[in-house]
Design a protein that fits this description.
215 residues; alpha/beta; Rossmann fold; hydrolase
Length: 215
Amino acid sequence: MNKQSEKFTLQGGAGAMECVLDIPEGTPRGVALVAHPHPLYGGAMDNKVTVTLARTFLALGYVAVRFNFRGVGKSEGVHDDGRGETDDMYLMWQHMRARFPDLPVALSGFSFGTFVQATLQQRLLAEGAPAERLVLVGTAAGKWAVPEVPQDTILIHGEVDDTITLTAVLDWARPQDIPVIVIPGADHFFHRKLGHIKTLVTQMWRRPDETALSE
């Protein structure tokens, strides 16, 4: 956490949710919800990829929020195979929309967290309130039934990921015609490669009006 981090508790579907909010300097340009990897395999909101995503959005001027899924840390409840976790992320989305009503909301996740965020995006689309954009790292294709995502989604994967193979992700992305950014030599947890994630997201995170101005 940084000096502008805020710990708080939100009431979820299975009890208290342990949360951390990072606030940028100046006026925020948006809110980013960040989801961590699988709770039953050590996943938590302090996972280094999850923290990297939160810090990246913070540097981009976003309020970055993450929380421990059910049964992790001080969050109550037990793992619910993604269903309850998606419900809880939706509650977080509602909470942040109420707190920052004028800001767009982006969704980001790592591994299991990509399934949660892609599923939440489908729910938001059905409500006519889709997220501004998605960033999915180590997309859990083949492990979970990850739904389709928007064309402008940023997909980042490790070349030598043996937890979720690159082949599985390409097979999932191909019918959607969405590019997958491959980091050479990166494993599932992006050991010694975290800087690439921050650099790629930072370079690609431009709004249409910003892109036009830079051309």
